[in-house]
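During the reporting period the student researcher (J.K.) took over the structure-prediction task from the postdoctoral fellow and processed the backlog of single-chain submissions. One of the processed entries is reproduced below for the supervisory committee.
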Amino acid sequence: MKIEVKGLTKRYKDNYALNNVSFTLDGPKIYGLLGRNGAGKTTFMDILSGQILASNGKIEIDGEEPFDNQKLTESICLIKEGHNFKKDLKVKNVLKVYSFFYPKWDQELADKLIKEYNLNLNSKVKTLSKGMESALGIIVGLSSKAPITIFDEPYIGLDAAARKKFYEIMLEEYEAEKRIIIFSTHLIDEVSLLFEEVLILQEGSLVLMEEADMLRNSTCAVSGTIEEVEAFISGKEVIEKKQLAGMMTAYVYSSIQEAKMHGLNAEGVPIQELMIYLTERKKGA
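J.K. obtained the following structure tokens:
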């Protein structure tokens, strides 16, 4: 499916949650949607999933707008960090409701994940721990097999082992049946290697949209004496630098080849370091 975002604006009185944002997501891919709190990520996901209307501009999915469009929203599954399900429903009834809504629902996968996360089908949502409620969201999101699956901080309350299992299963399911997965997270270091393309929102504007591999190839970590490294990075955009005992390592926008030509040791920048830097830097810096 093709998602076209055209001049998307959402205004709350004098505050712009999104301000004239335009981009296209085309075809199955795992997208990382990053940004600090208040950047506009959740507003974008709410408009994409047809839950709210834009103030101006629009989102089109294969030429149609999602708001009040059941045929289209059957192709979109949004799992937020909480409050996804009615509190008085039992787990088994939550799963039944979603299995009716999503035409491609995979009950076999749902059963497998219920066992993996040790969920009691007869428990009411209101009795679940935060982690178990997150697990239920993950089960619905993956089992929906929705062509556009959106996860917004879906793992609150899950420990590191449970989160790792989620990432592994998500990747397995994506490889078995490709779809658009949009993943919004603050735990960049855990999931950065899953992303094929990265979008960064800041203060309601899109400040970066780039293939993850291109990001990796446009930066490098250079090491050498303080004098050598300082001379090399002069005039370049520096992500971070560290020094110890007369030696320096700097993360910089440059190629590994260029650094090696200057006699420096060079290797790739850890992608999570790069994404954290890009997410936190000031707009226009």
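The committee noted the following: The chain has eleven helices and 13 strands.
J.K. will present the remaining backlog at the next meeting.
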